[in-house]
Amino acid sequence: MTSPLIYLTRHVQAFLGALGRLLRRPLGSLLTLLAIAVALALPASLWLLVKNAQLATGDTSEAIEISVYFRPGAALEKAEQLAASARARPEVGTVTVISADAALEEFRTYSGFGAALDSLQGNPLPHVITVKPKLDYANPRGVESLQKYLRAWPEVDRVQVDGEWVRRLSAILDLMRKVLGAFASLLALGVLVVIGNAIRLEIGA
Predict the structure, then answer these.
(1) Residue 163 phi, psi (nearest 5)
(2) What CA–CA distance (Å, rounded) separates 140 from 169?
(3) CB–CB of 89/129 below 8 Å?
(4) String of DSSP letters for 85-129
(5) Architecture of domain 65-162 in CATH?
(6) pTM more than 0.90
(7) Percent of the chain with pLDDT over 70
(8) What does the radius of gyration of the chain's CA atoms come to, in whole angstroms?
(9) Residue of 93, 87, 66, 46 lying closest to 166 (CA atoms)
(10) Which residues have C-beta within 8 Å of that of residue 51, sequence separation ≥ 6?
(11) Which residue from 150, 154, 148, 152 is spatially nearest to 73, judged by alpha carbons?
C-alpha cells in the first residue's frame, strides 16, 4: 500500500516537473494558458450578460395581458359568455369584463371631454374583456394558442396582446440562452483539443 508520504512526494515531483516544462517553453505555455482562459471566460461573461438582462426586465410573464374588443353593437351577454368560457380554460389566470358603459364613464371621468361625449348619439366604445394567462402559459406558444381561441368567437372584433415587446424580449433571451449553450459546448471542445495537443507535444518531446 502506498503511504501518504510517498503519495505526496509523487505529486510534488509531478508538479515540479510540469513547472520546469512550462519554464523551458514560456511562450508556448503562455499561449496555451491564454487560449484556455479565454475559452472559459467568454461563455461565463456572456451568461452573466444574459442573466443580468433577465434581472433587468424582471418577470416578463406578469406583464402579458390580452385585450379582447367586441364588435359594435355586440350584446354584453356575449362578452360575459366569452369571459365565463375563458375562465374555464386551464391556461387562463384572471378575466375582467369591461362593459361599454363602464368604459365610457371611465373615459368621461379621466379625459375631460364630458361635454363632447354628451353630444354623441350613442356609445362608440365596445365591450372589452382582459385576459391574463397563468405563469406557466405566459410564453409565446401559450399566448398564441389563447389568441386563436379568443379570435374564433364571431362577436370578437380584435384581439390585442398588451406587453408584446416584453414577450418578444423573453423569446430573444431564450434564444440567446440556447445559442450560448451551443457556443459554450464548442469552446469546451476546443479546450479539450488544446489540452490534448499540449499533452501530445509534451509526450513527443
Answers:
(1) 85, 30
(2) 11
(3) no
(4) HHHTSTTEEEEEEE-HHHHHHHHHHHHS-HHHHHTSSS--PPPEE
(5) 2-Layer Sandwich (3.30)
(6) no
(7) 82
(8) 32
(9) 66
(10) none
(11) 154
